[in-house]
Automatic annotation (TrEMBL):
It holds the Pfam family EPSP_synthase. This is 3-phosphoshikimate 1-carboxyvinyltransferase. Monomer. The gene is aroA. Residues 59-398 form the Enolpyruvate transferase domain. Catalyzes the transfer of the enolpyruvyl moiety of phosphoenolpyruvate (PEP) to the 5-hydroxyl of shikimate-3-phosphate (S3P) to produce enolpyruvyl shikimate-3-phosphate and inorganic phosphate. Its EC number is 2.5.1.19. GO terms for biological process: amino acid biosynthetic process; aromatic amino acid family biosynthetic process; chorismate biosynthetic process. Phosphoenolpyruvate binds at K22, G69, R98, Q146, R322, R365, K389. Keywords: Amino-acid biosynthesis, Aromatic amino acid biosynthesis, Coiled coil, Cytoplasm, Transferase. 3-phosphoshikimate binds at K22, S23, R27, S144, S145, Q146, S172, D291, K318. GO terms for molecular function: 3-phosphoshikimate 1-carboxyvinyltransferase activity. It is an enzyme of class 2 (transferase). Its main location: cytoplasm.
Amino acid sequence: MNLKLQQVSAIKSGALQITGSKSETNRLLILQALYPNIKIENVSNSDDSVLMQRALASTDETVDIHHAGTAMRFLTAYFALKEGRKTTLTGSKRMQERPIKILVDALQQLGCDIQYEKEEGYPPINILGTKPEANKVELQANVSSQYISALMLMASSLPNGLEIALKGKVTSVPYINMTLSLLEDVGIKGAFKDNVITIPENKNDIDNTIVVESDWSSASYFYSIVALSQNAEITLGSYKKRSYQGDSSLATIYKNLGVETVFGDHTVTLKKNNITNYEALHGLDLSNSPDIAQTIAVTCFGLGISCYLTGLHTLKIKETDRLEALKTEIEKLGGEVEITEDSLRLAASNRMEKDILIGTYHDHRMAMAFAPLALRTSLSIEDADVVSKSYPDFWRDLEKLGFALG
Ligand SMILES: O=C(O)C1=C[C@@H](OP(=O)(O)O)[C@@H](O)[C@H](O)C1
Ligand SMILES: C=C(OP(=O)(O)O)C(=O)O
């Protein structure tokens, strides 16, 4: 379904409750599968978390996780270490193009039994669960942190825990720290020092209740809306100042784009002010928070300012090639974008075409990143339901703020 967004001149101030972080939820669901007395509150209602829950509950031999990257990676390690269980783990067409070799190699190093069903290095994979004796593994860390988190989440179930040595420049580091922090919250105290992660074996009962913080990547779209508005003020729950999510760097980044963040009791209020520092957008390294790159690029385009975003090497293997997709869609609207393998340069421009259909390429973040441009022009979003991968209530929440949809 294509969704038309009328141009809106002003939006209402409002308060929204954002669903739980899908990254935190999907880690905790794996830990709950290992330690069933763990309780999770503010569970994400994202498709990716629903798919994860279904996969963990399934007794079928074939498990299909559609587009969910974390589910694919975390479940590869989970099923590989589930002794005696035979699983074919598969996903959408795009998932079958997203690499998994680094993780499979690491699990094979440990002694796991995993075969590729079609193309080497890519899902679907056939897994026969084992309990390996080895407790050391080495893997390349510059492609996806999800491979590392997958091993960390399973490590405490191995007879001697696990030592994970990371090679190369480590990418998406906050997601590794998030895994470490959640493990610690349930009582498993690991360490990450000098590119070596150590997770001990756990023999204790675990019955903690963990409250998932709401999703910061989802909050990014409201940062963009406030930046593009005259004077909007939006309160979002439930957030905390000391977040496990690297995308909470939004507060610092959007300060440069005229958005002030005020932390309340479990909320953040985003307020428009006119204090900007656009220079900070020139050479902004997003290797710690890849999921907000699209939001930031589109905000800058909406503001008519230039930006140069770096550290984007992981964007090519996400739900789509996000660098290509951004270039194509911003250029349709009249912008000028140059991309390399790991960077995006947007030229300053006041051009903004009307009534363009924005392609979304099965990528929830393409739909959500472009929606705030309705504060500047009328546009349509292709396949608008794609947002449910991380944020099923997105369009309803935009309507609450006064966006005119349909
Ligand atoms: O571990 C996680 O929950 C995630 C890690 C990141 O992936 P990469 O480590 O592949 O960059 C991020 O893009 C993804 O949305 C969620
Ligand atoms: C990249 C993302 O998800 P995943 O890799 O888990 O599919 C995302 O949500 O932006």
